[in-house]
């Protein structure tokens, strides 16, 4: 496939783009800074500028595409991961502006250029827990895609707005637009640097609903979305199968979720950030766990 990937130089993208390129895809990274990785081409783009977005998504990906002499080929898909990644990087108003305007520009260009698929990064924060002022508990556990999305902060607000934008563009165009409500992204090296603290103090993971997603499994999720056509507009939770803490599911419920309704029974160390929909509709199957590293 020919794929435009926004924000490919970020924490997730720098792992996922080389994975896609290794599979033989043509991958163009649209970002403010380039990613130096084999098989990945780069174009410096300000995604808040609609003209730059439209030009980038209707242009060549590399010099090799000049050789056939048949004009500019069309992208098969856009993966939109670019964003200000959380609150407290820039002022709240700027976080909301950048994240919503860039998403609108990418989706509008995709629809008007006839690109048949958009995969965009939404977030666990849409459920209103991660960046809340004080403690907010889920309405029920495990948290699935039917859980209310009532954001408490500018970042989460931008992600909910982006989901509305995606649903609207899909209804108007009929293309596939899939939103990924991505949990806390973990790189492999973080299992040894960060997770010992999570084992010592499980409360550190409360705002992430005690879940996580290995960046390599996030890459697999993108692959599953690219390979699955015809779903229209859908949102999917993206997480690994197990908790990100050393205590059991029962212990987490007793210590942190006393009185919270249980929608579906969970056992052992099963995640409270439900990924069943992605498994059923996309064939997603996480392969990695911090337990493989730390035991």
From TrEMBL:
Protein name per the record: NAD(P)-dependent oxidoreductase
Any single Pfam family the record assigns to this protein: Epimerase
Domain called NAD-dependent epimerase/dehydratase: residue spans: 6-201
Domain of life (superkingdom): Bacteria
PANTHER family: NUCLEOSIDE-DIPHOSPHATE-SUGAR EPIMERASE, PUTATIVE-RELATED
Alphabetical list of InterPro entries matching this protein: Epimerase_deHydtase (IPR001509), NAD(P)-bd_dom_sf (IPR036291)
Transmembrane intervals: none
Record's signal peptide: none
């Amino acid at each position: 496939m020919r794929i435009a990937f926004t924000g490919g130089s970020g924490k997730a993208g720098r792992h996922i783009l080389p994975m896609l390129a290794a599979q033989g895809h043509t991958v163009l990274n649209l970002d403010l800074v380039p990613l130096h990785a084999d098989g990945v081409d780069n174009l410096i783009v300000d995604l808040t500028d609609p003209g730059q977005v439209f030009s980038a998504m209707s242009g060549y990906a590399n010099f090799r595409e000049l050789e056939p002499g048949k004009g500019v080929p069309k992208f098969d898909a856009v993966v939109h991961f670019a964003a200000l990644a959380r609150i407290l990087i820039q002022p709240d108003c700027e976080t909301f502006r950048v994240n919503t305007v860039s998403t609108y520009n990418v989706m509008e260009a995709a629809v008007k250029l006839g690109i048949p698929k958009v995969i965009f990064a939404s977030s666990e924060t849409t459920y209103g827990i991660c960046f809340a002022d004080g403690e907010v508990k889920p309405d029920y556990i495990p948290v699935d895609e039917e859980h209310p999305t009532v954001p408490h902060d500018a970042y989460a607000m931008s992600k909910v707005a982006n989901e509305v934008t995606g649903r609207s563009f899909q209804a108007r165009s009929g293309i596939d637009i899939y939103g990924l409500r991505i949990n806390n992204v973990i790189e492999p090296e973080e299992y040894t640097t960060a997770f010992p603290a999570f084992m010592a103090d499980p409360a550190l993971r409360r705002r992430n609903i005690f879940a996580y997603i290995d960046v390599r499994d996030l890459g697999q999720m993108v692959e599953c979305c690219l390979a699955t056509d015809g779903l229209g507009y859908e949102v999917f939770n993206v997480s690994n199968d197990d908790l990100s803490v050393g205590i059991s599911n029962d212990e987490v419920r007793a210590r942190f979720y006393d009185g919270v309704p249980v929608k579906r029974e969970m056992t052992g160390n099963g995640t409270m950030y439900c990924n069943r929909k992605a498994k059923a509709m996309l064939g997603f199957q996480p392969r990695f766990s911090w337990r493989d590293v730390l035991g």
